């Protein structure tokens, strides 16, 4: 069984957010540099931006008050009878 | 527009057409995106109906929230990157040349340029139910330049564009012969 504090997963999440911001910036730069700013590209950018912001807001909302110090067991204890991912 | 700077437009050049891939070819991806957005919502609804107490006070709940968040953000990035790839494939036709800008993913772009008088032959294909219904297809341009063949996929009205390109190429050939 592997046990890790929950904040480790938060750091992994932040690392992914960094990748997300990087790729979003590259995408937007392509759009501006190539002059692809039209009504359609604006609408698609707006929809994607709204979904991303809403996702981040809901993530923050649902994770409020989480105890990040708690220990999570991420692999089941194959030898024991209660090794069922904690469910 | 910025892509005029990208192709280094000459002073005497007049842009006649700016063509992108037909919008209808993007619709399947848009539908897939909507479907994939709805999947976690459907799964959540199913779990809340079948096991209403499953997620209450579960230590794995924050992990689940972060996973779903990552899923949606990844979806946004993949969809938007695909849109950029789709939207920045541009065919620019001027009275002097034809420029094919081909965006290949996020970190590659190829720009082919053909002088109109070097065009030897153009083939337009409209094949299949949806291309026939919505009037889009492929153009194959044979040239006498360093780029022997240019393929342009899923552009609207390929037959009309082929005729117009052939007319423009004839005019340009006459101009180059006379001067």
Q: Major sheet of chain B, described briefly? A: 4 strands, antiparallel
Mean pLDDT of chain A, to the nearest integer, reads: 85
The CATH architecture term of the largest domain in chain B is Roll
Q: Which percent range fits the helix content of chain A?
A: 55-70%
| Total number of domains of chain B | 2
The general outline of chain A is elongated
As a percent range, the share of helical residues of chain B equals 40-55%
Instruction: Give a short account of the largest sheet of chain A.
Output: 2 strands, antiparallel
Strand content of chain B: 25-35%
The averaged pLDDT of chain B comes out at 89
Gyration radius of chain A, in Å: 20 Å
* Greatest interface and its participating residue counts: A-B, 37 and 35 residues
This entry's quaternary arrangement is heterodimer
* Strand ordering within the main sheet of chain A: 1-2
Spatial extent as radius of gyration of chain B: 24 Å
Strand element count of chain B = 7
CATH-assigned homologous superfamily of the largest domain in chain B = Pleckstrin-homology domain (PH domain)/Phosphotyrosine-binding domain (PTB)
Structural class of chain A: mainly alpha
Q: The CATH topology of the largest domain in chain B, please?
A: PH-domain like
Within the largest sheet of chain B, what's the order of strands? Answer: 1-2-3-4
CATH class annotation of the largest domain in chain B: Mainly Beta
């Amino acid at each position: 069984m592997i046990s890790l504090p929950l904040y480790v997963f938060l750091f992994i999440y932040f690392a992914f957010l960094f990748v997300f911001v990087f790729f979003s910036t590259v995408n937007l730069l392509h759009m501006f540099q190539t002059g692809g700013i039209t009504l359609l590209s604006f609408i698609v950018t707006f929809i994607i931006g709204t979904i991303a912001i809403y996702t981040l807001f809901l993530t923050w909302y649902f994770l409020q008050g989480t105890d990040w110090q708690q220990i999570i067991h991420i692999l089941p204890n194959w030898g024991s009878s209660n090794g069922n991912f904690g469910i | 527009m910025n892509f005029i700077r990208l192709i280094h437009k000459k002073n005497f050049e007049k842009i006649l057409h700016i063509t992108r891939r037909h919008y209808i070819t993007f619709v399947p991806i848009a539908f897939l995106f909507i479907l994939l957005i709805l999947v976690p919502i459907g799964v959540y609804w199913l779990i809340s109906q079948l096991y209403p107490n499953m997620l209450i006070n579960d230590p794995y709940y924050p992990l689940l929230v972060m996973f779903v968040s990552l899923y949606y953000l990844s979806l946004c990035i993949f969809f938007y990157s695909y849109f950029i790839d789709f939207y920045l494939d541009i065919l620019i036709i001027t009275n002097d040349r034809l420029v094919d800008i081909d965006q290949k993913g996020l970190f590659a772009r190829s720009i082919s340029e053909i002088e109109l008088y070097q065009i030897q032959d153009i083939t337009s294909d409209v094949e299949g139910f949806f291309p026939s219904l919505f009037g889009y297809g492929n153009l194959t341009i044979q040239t006498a330049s360093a780029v022997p063949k240019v393929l342009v996929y899923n552009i609207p009205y390929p037959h009309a564009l082929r005729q117009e390109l052939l007319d423009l190429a004839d005019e340009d050939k006459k101009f180059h012969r006379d001067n």
